[in-house]
Amino acid sequence: MSDLIQKIKSLSEEYFEEILEIRRHIHANPELSFQEHETANFIENKLSEFGITNFERIADTGVTFCLEGREPGKTIALRADIDALPILEANDVSYKSKNDGVMHACGHDVHTSNLLGVAKILSQLTDQFKGTIKFIFQPAEEKSPGGASILIKDGVLENPVPERILGQHVMPLIPEGKVGFRPGKYMASADEIYLTIKGKGGHAAMPETFIDPIAIAGQIIVSLQQIVSRIANPKIPSVLSFGKIEGGNINNVIPNEVKIDGTFRTFDETWRKEALQKVRDISTSIAQAMGGSCEVHIAPGYPFLVNDEQYTVKNIAAAKEYMGAENVVDLGLWMAAEDFAFYTHEVPGCFYRLGTRNESKGITSGVHTPTFNVDENALKTGMGLMSYLAIHELNS
Ligand code: NI
After folding, report:
1. Which sequence positions are flagged as catalytic?
2. Ligand 1 centre distance from Cα of residue 234 (Å)
3. Rounded to 5 degrees, what angle do the CA atoms 29, 34, 40 make?
4. Residues of the chain with pLDDT under 70
5. What is the CATH number of the domain that holds 370?
6. Whole-prediction pTM value?
7. β-strand 132-138 against 75-81: which pairing, if any?
8. Centre of ligand 1 from the C-alpha of residue 184, in Å
9. How far is the CA of 88 from the centre of ligand 1 (A)?
10. What pLDDT, on a 0 to 100 scale, did the predictor assign at position 316?
11. 159: buried, middle or exposed (CB in 10 Å: 19+, 13-18, 0-12)?
12. 374 — alpha (psi -120 to 50), left (phi > 0) or beta?
């Protein structure tokens, strides 16, 4: 084991209790997307305690700063998201959310405390690397249009321009002590679809007099599935799911209107545009053919997330040095979306997964559930590995 790895491991060990307390404080005080005011203040206070004072606000609740190495060189960026979700926590823990109905159910408390740990470790090791490390504490990963897109517009990738960007996310499917990587495309784009089907309501006994939006909705749902099964290139994974349908009040009245909400996910920008146009065309023409109409509203979400092949393969090798090859696993494609994707279309990036599962402690719940939690030992791995990957890239 190299001296550097030894040093980082012992600093991770030394700072672990402190970072654990930070994680619990953030977990107990979650804030929703774009409202992370106390979280941003807390991050700044901790950085000041660590002797880091050159931080700046970006997009109101984002915090960013640069750490300089022993001599000029490349710049790389490290990013953590800091927002929580509108979920009522069901965990019975001493650090349970004090903000009822808001919860760190996606591990962004872990990402934030982890990046503070990385800042503390790397601020002790500036003689070990050349170049610049830009830290990005990013608001609003969970809410469209995504904090990342706003930070990019506000210049987070300028002055200095990072040549690489690294992000880490908890993964309750991977045991604590392991991490996962995937070179190339990893997570899907996701767009929101809102259909409003209009007919003409009346007594259900006289359908010939009215236009039934429920019957039209049925046709539209079935036909839209043809986009994935018949029109999509089978080599490009696509998902079209409807999670909400709303219309009518009673068995014997044809309603005026039906609303259907859904999501479309895929891994190709050209196909993404084409598929959404098909959703528009098919929905409006079916409704029209059946005598009604359909309004289609599409709220664009995040693009697909692509991990730079070379950079990711390099990080896999470095992670194996740090953790042992047996603790670095391969990831499959993931149909969920993540706003880190915006960065990966600007800068070669790598978004990897930190294992947080521990069956013997009963820590198995998925992200975005009221019982989500992590094995906190993952913080040690998380801050150590990210510190090592940062230095490894700058010195190579
Ligand atoms: Ni998340």
Report:
1. 83, 141
2. 28
3. 50
4. none
5. 3.40.630.10
6. 0.94
7. parallel
8. 20
9. 17
10. 98
11. exposed
12. beta
* pLDDT for residue 205: 97
Does 183 share its domain with 315?
A: yes
Q: Are 346 and 321 in the same domain?
A: yes
Instruction: Tell me how far the alpha carbon of residue 246 lies from the centroid of ligand 1, in angstroms.
Output: 29
Assess whether 295 and 315 both reside in one domain.
no
Q: Which residues of 109-141 are buried (b: 16+ CB within 10 A; e: fewer)?
A: bbbbbbbbbbbbbbebbeebbbbbbbbbbbbbb
C-alpha of residue 357 to centroid of ligand 1, in Å: 15
| Type of residue at 143 | K
User: Which DSSP category does 64 fall into?
Assistant: E
Specify the pLDDT at position 370: 97
Place of tokens 């640069």: 66
Which of 246, 268, 302 is a domain's end point?
Answer: 302
Residue 28 confidence (pLDDT)? 98
How far apart CA 10 and CA 208 sit, in angstroms, is 78
- For residue 20, the 8-state DSSP code is H
Q: Which of 253, 278, 302 finishes a domain?
A: 302
Q: Can you give the pLDDT at residue 114?
A: 98
Q: Tell me how far apart the alpha carbons of residues 93 and 79 are, in angstroms, rounded to a whole number.
A: 28
**Predicted pLDDT at 31:** 98
First to last CA, the chain: 18
Please give the tally of structural domains in the chain.
2
pLDDT of residue 76: 98
The pLDDT value recorded for residue 222 is: 97
Q: Domain residues for 195? A: 190-302
Provide the β-strand partners of residue 74.
Answer: none
Shared domain check, 101 and 23: yes
Q: What is the pLDDT of residue 29?
A: 98
